[in-house]
Design brief:
alpha+beta; 2 helices; Alpha-Beta Plaits; metal ion binding; iron-sulfur; single chain; two-stranded antiparallel ribbon; 3Fe-4S; Ferredoxin-1; binds iron/sulfur cluster; globular; electron transport
């Protein structure tokens, strides 16, 4: 899995960091906008990443399910 984000569309709702804190952060010093901790999360994080993508109100999160682990 490879994760990416369109930083131009994030509206800083904070959902992603709440749902998948091992992959996304919404740092106060960044105005709560998305920060990606890793583009290649471990398999244990995949369900949370998919949920974060589904619940992102601005369609900012993208997942390439075919992306290699490294
Ligand atoms: S859930 Fe979407 S809109 Fe909300 S902070 Fe994360 S990327 Fe931005």
């Amino acid at each position: 899995m490879k994760v990416s984000a369109n930083y131009d569309t994030c509206i800083a709702s904070g959902n992603c960091g709440y749902i998948a804190p091992g992959v996304f952060r919404n740092l106060e010093e960044h105005g709560g906008f998305i920060s990606l901790i890793t583009e290649h999360p471990p398999e244990s994080e995949w369900p949370a990443v998919r949920r974060a993508k589904r619940l992102c109100p601005s369609g900012t999160i993208f997942i390439d399910e075919t992306g290699s682990a490294r």
